[in-house]
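Because discrete structure vocabularies remain unfamiliar, we reproduce here a specimen of the format, pairing a chain with its fold in token form:
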Amino acid sequence: MQSIHFLSGLPRSGSTLLAALLRQNPRFYANMSGPLAGMVNAMLGEMSGRNEFSVFITDQQRQRVLRGLFDSYYSDEFTADVVFDTSRIWCAKLPVLHTLFPGAKLIACVRHVSWIVDSVECAIRNNALRPSTIFSFQTGGTVYSRAEGIAHGEGMLGYAYNALKEAFYGEHAKHLMVLQYETLVRDPAGAMAAVYEFIGEPLFQHDFDNVRFEAEEFDERAGTPGLHTVGGKVQAQERATVLPPDIFRRFENDAFWLNAAANIRAVRVV
């Protein structure tokens, strides 16, 4: 199959924007989060000891089956030279990805955690008449229960945060690059140059004044129209937070990737 790399990291941190930029390059294919990571998880489970016939499955067969998922999904209609597959799950699957694709790189998008919680809350308030799949379409929550819901270990944010730390401190961290949302929106040219250098591809001249992406059907079904819409110029937008001060303060020191002394694997942080 084509050369493949992976986009992952924290929610509401620029992965859709990064994909929208990458797909400007006619040699690249990139998109929002897709189904492959879930399919890999499902197949790992089906080939595990919980299946009584797993005694007939070797690790070589497991590897071929999982590679086959990618080969089949990104088949002939995907003509790009380089594919970027996106999922927050990939940070927790770096050993699997390294086994399947030893040369693949993982770009993890991050953002100050308080602003991630703020961004999710804004998405909910902007669609006040539509309960969201983010909270299982529940209608009785508050900003406090919503913050707690996404931050716990299996929540939208908490899971991704823990998965990122696993990759950041893991044995395959040399295949990981952390891309800060703040860098991407304030210096998109510099951010993209770092991405191209990391994956070893020739630099492409992107149009940072006209970036477009939308997933209307997906966002409508999720109860959050506009959640993945990208349009216009890449730029930082300064505004006040919608969060109560105590919630904002709770998360404001969680950007562990900024602690150079704790970067024991020398992960590149852009």
In short: The chain is about 40% helix and 10% strand.
